[in-house]
UniProtKB/TrEMBL annotation:
GO-annotated cellular components: cytoplasm
Principal EC category: transferase
Coiled-coil stretches: none
Record-given protein name: Homoserine kinase
Described function: Catalyzes the ATP-dependent phosphorylation of L-homoserine to L-homoserine phosphate.
Protein's cellular compartments: Cytoplasm
Length: 301
């Protein structure tokens, strides 16, 4: 039998909620095709779309390593053999949850192949381990929305406590990836591990405001709340044209603008698909003028 799974890209942090908020987009995403094989063990048959950057060696590749880890946890690693094809349809190191999408697709596929022994809640910790392998920390704010869909809040990490939050009907995201590489590992090392209490108060006011706004479908409150005073000033340095892109987005009516995940992708939130498209196009045109290639995606949240 063959199992095919698509897992979506995700916008972690939702601008104000570092490591605790994230949402899935409709496109792009990664695809895993998994087939049974006679011999026990997990092997990678093929990876496409990665420009040869990802390891094919099963113990080094995040997807196969996580699948193997799950088989071991279920005590069936010596009996089950699977072969994996990974088709990446999004850039690596982009701030779009690329590693998370691959990991979630792989773990979802093996779970389906085994007849769904695990619930999504039980599958999630394995996905988090994948993130730890990929970038050194087990943040769940990409894997949770990639697995559950929609918007998720990571209320706690130990133990994992994930809350799904409703998506306001009109909320649309414009995501632009300027083609420069910013590995999450590096983007995490850059940020300070101490914050001032007064800044923390501002930030958690914004996070609480955003969560309330999502439930109330209050777009003005979304706009007021989706601001990041803690991380953005530091990480923006790694993103070419960041403040110029922000100005373009806000000028065209974005509710909010900020970094997607650890960057360099950026996200503009809107309540209108046409506005979102206009913002993506204008930002991409601006980047082109500055000799930076980019990809743009518009998606319901
Ligand atoms: N919350 C993580 C970070 C997401 O900002 O580093 C990484 O995609």
């Amino acid at each position: 039998p063959e199992v095919r799974v698509f897992a979506p890209a995700t916008v972690a942090n939702m601008i104000c909620g570092f490591d605790i908020l994230g949402f899935a987009v409709e496109q792009p995403g990664d695809e895993v095709i998994m087939r049974r094989k006679q011999q026990p063990g997990v092997t990678i048959k093929e990876i496409t779309g990665d420009d040869g950057r990802l390891p094919l060696e099963p113990s080094k590749n995040t997807v196969s390593a996580c699948v193997q880890y799950l088989l071991q946890a279920l005590n069936i690693a010596s009996k089950v053999g699977v072969e994996i094809e990974l088709h990446k349809h999004m850039p690596i190191g982009s701030g779009l949850g690329s590693s998370a999408a691959s990991t979630v697709a792989g773990l979802f596929a093996i779970n389906v192949m085994l007849g769904n022994p695990l619930t999504k809640e039980e599958l999630l910790p394995f996905c988090v381990e994948g993130e730890r392998l990929a970038c050194g920390t087990g943040h769940a704010d990409n894997v949770a929305p990639a697995l559950y869909g929609g918007i998720t809040l990571i209320r706690g990490n130990e133990p994992l406590d994930v809350v799904s939050i409703p998506s306001p009907k009109e909320l649309v995201a414009a995501v632009v990836f300027p083609q420069v590489d910013v590995p999450t590992r590096d983007a995490r090392q850059l940020i300070k591990d101490k914050v001032l209490l007064k800044d923390a108060v501002t930030q958690w006011g914004n996070i609480a405001g955003l969560v309330a706004a999502l439930f109330k479908e209050d777009y003005d409150l979304i706009s007021r709340s989706m601001k990041d005073i803690l991380i953005e000033p530091t990480r923006a340095i790694l993103i070419p044209q960041f403040y110029e892109m922000k100005e373009i987005a806000l000028k065209h009516g974005a509710l909010s603008f900020g970094i997607s995940g650890s960057g360099p992708s950026v996200v503009a939130m809107t309540r209108d698909e046409q506005i979102a498209q206009k913002i993506a196009d204008s930002i991409q045109a601006h980047l082109k003028e500055n000799e930076i290639e980019s990809f743009g995606y518009v998606s319901k949240v």
